[in-house]
Hints:
10 helices
Amino acid sequence: MRKTYGNLLPGMKLSDLQGKLIVVEGTDGAGRTTQIDLLKPWLEELGHAVLDTGISRSSLAGEGIRRAKEGNNLGRVTQSLFYATDFVDRLENEIVPALRAGFVVLTDRYIYSLMARAIVRGMDGAWIRSIFGVALVPDAVFYLRLGIDDLIPRVIYSRGFDYWESGVDLFPGQDMYDSFRNYQTALLAEFDRLSVEYQFDTVDASVEPRAVFAQLKEKVLDVLESDSRRAFISKLYDYSPTIPVPKIGPIHHAGPADGTRDLDLLLQKAARRYLDRSIEHALNPSNGNGHGSLDHK
């Protein structure tokens, strides 16, 4: 059953949210956006409706955050509240409606990035958790972890150092390189702590992007195939010897090509869908047709 980390948004029914919420987390330069750009069309080719979203994209607060950051004088409390407004607006007006419609929602960062940034800047952890209490517990959080020595070259050769992602507001007396290294090291330590607390699925982001994508495809398929209805039907098989149980063996890949691999995955999905329909017909021959806690201590 779907959960939140605290209180529900007004009028929200968790039982209505049948889609899947998948989070891709990680520090700046870890390759989150690249992976979402690969995952979205792949999921759509498999027949899923997909919404991708991320920090600072709400119609209510996104532009305001960008403008406030341009002046490099955004205070840490205001920053936290601004990002919380952005998140709740996207949650209410994008994420929840998409989940209600059965979409797969891919989000580039979630509340964990916002919490990590705020905590590293000295904000009270309990207060930060409280303002994000309406957040839905995701179906999966994939943490793309990239060590500081791999992270720095990526940032230098892509877009260079950014004032906020370099933590210059925290280390005003240092040059931007030293500030970036110190800030991102602290952020990595906080992400690692959160990854244990919230049981992230950690993926090594230091390898080639296509290798990361291959791992994520397998993990995402596991998420999409692990719904409670399938588990329920599987249990019924254990107690009903009269229903034949077709066996779907492991996938054997003929080669390294992505096309062959994806075709195998698609065929397996179709076979499982056929199996489900057969099971339901056998079980119903006459049929024609909560809350979690944000503090996991």
